[in-house]
Fold these 2 entries.
Entry 1:
Amino acid sequence: MTWGRPLGRLRGAVAAFSCVAAVTAGCGPAAPPPATPGTDDTDRRMDFGLERMEAHDYAHAAGAFYGAFNNLPESDLRRDLAAYDLAKALVGLGFVQAGIEHYFGIVEGRHVPDLVNKSLADLVPMFDAHKVDRDRLIESILWGNQYSDLPPGVADFVEYQQALTDIRHGFPEWGRPRMEALAATKRPYAFFAKYALAVDRVARKDDDAAAEALLAITKADDAPTEVKDDARLALARIHYEKKRYEDAWRVYSEISGDLRLEDSVILEKSWDLVSNGNQQRALGLLVGLGAPAFRDLFAPERDLIRALALRRLCQFRAAHVTVRDFRHRYGQVLSAVRAGIPLGDVPIVRTWSVAGDPRLKEVDHLRVALLAEQDKLSKVGDKPLRAHLAAVYATVLAHTQLEVNQRLQRATERVADELIRVEEQMNLIDYEVGVGLFKSGDAQGSTSAIRADEIPYGSQSAYFRFDGEYWSDEIGDYTVFAEDRCVR
């Protein structure tokens, strides 16, 4: 056989193997036939691996492809082909992260354009499924490089990520024209580009133009739901900053994302309601944040908003109890902060830190996936392949763990800063409650809120006392009937 076949597939003569007809019955060969001493048996190994892949026998396929990959010099283009097929076999075998490493190697090497394009095409869905180290792929591999003849969807993905990275790294004169060109198309990534340009306008204090662009995204029927919700959140924040609280609430209410991702949205809604004088409705949203879906949420602002709303209703005893509960809930952590104890050693602080930092959460998720796959290495029967995979996982885990540690330190510092900031404001509220200091304007607008004696008995609506049971479709609809006791 000669090296003249298409790079995407190597096809061998099946007559060289026995028991081909009985592969699906478990009679497939465990290894390629022995090679004649002194000859290059790469094609024989590759053909055997392809046959095993077609039979979904990923273990023997991976062993065959690794044998070819390991025996070829880097100057031989067949090595990239072996790496590509090895990556696919490893993913099929469940060693996804090891497979991704081989895809990365092909893209970084850029020896065979066809295989670079195929590797990127395989990586994109895994990127979308959060299985790929996003920063490594974008920052270290894609950014600053050029690719040609990519499939349309992959080409747009690469163009979007490169343009976005240009803008993030302070090269807007390069990134914006590329992003604008992508936004002008009618392809899927057009709306991602439009959203990125709108956020860039916010960063440049061009809020009116940003709001107009974000509004257009929210009204586009063909915009992905994910992008629509991101646009709504950004638009609501603009309205809030401009003190257009009613407009902010309307846009916040249109967000329809996964409930588990709505914790920050509910907090922002609560701030909007407090600022607009609707204290009872804000307190209701905070009740919703007590649902099990938000159990691990680090949000000391919940107590701050609750105490502030109750103080504005002149519910002084309830406000003081909220401050006391805050001190009880976070007292030990605050003591650790003051004592200089490393917060990364405090389990609950680590949980809060990971949950509150998207990049740390992503890297920690990858670390867990790497450990789970590493634990399965003992089941790999091919010793050379097992040794290779062990080295791959050890290297990638060391890099990932280092990044987790570095980001965890910064994230725990942010947790400490947030707790101290909220504690200072809670102390101020408790002081005002204790000495009876409050301004008549603190509860402005609250007189229009629902009061306990305004429940419309006899209406078609039913009212129930909250008994601690949550329903996901009700979390955003709670209202606390706390009487406004302020003297007018």
Entry 2:
Amino acid sequence: MNAGLDGRPAPLELRRLTVSYGARPVVWDVDARFPAGALSAVVGPNGAGKSTLLKAALGLIPSDAGQALIDGRPVRGALDRVAYVPQRDAIDWDFPITVREVVEMGRYARTGWIRRVARTDRALVEECLARVGMSEYASRQIGQLSGGQRQRVFIARALAQQAPVMMMDEPFAGVDARTEASILTLLRELRDEGRSVIVVHHDLGTVRAAFDWVLLLNVRAVAAGPVAEVLTPEILRRAYGGGAVDLDPGEATWAG
């Protein structure tokens, strides 16, 4: 097991990961080693392969070459170590299921799909709903929720898994500023509790202000490391083709 300086294995390690759609490479020969106990981001321009990279790392789509490790182990034997929050457009919001039932699904890996949810699991589900501010909506059908509320529910489901690694694909897409701020606060809390959080995101300003570590991707890995070392004007120009503008030492944005 390849451990980091703190003795903990990397929550996600990519070794020459390559994915293509037909003849078109989407992720090409990517090496990256995400640090444990950090709030990490995967950023890059549209079409850079960010979501594809995350899905391939989790084995949700096939890769052409390379390998992904979770907590130092091959993905197939380590899925109990990771909780995944997909993009909202990947979910059937018309499915007749309540908010509470969605969060209970986070316990199925431990309880099984047939057995009834135990009292201790129900208590954990209620705790997770409270943590994301969705307790009063527990009996509501998920299709009746706003975009931000739906995102909170699926974060609660991930929390219910109690996995040490959390991976999230564009969790801030389509949510208002207040919801984004509350999600960011929660992610920092999870990091401070010792979890490793990896987020696909597009806003460089948010990453610079709130994240610890970043993989800058444009099909290939452009750079990876602490945010302050990676999100520099020179490196951003290499990734975005000259469209990245450094407005001041504390902020970066996209002007393409």
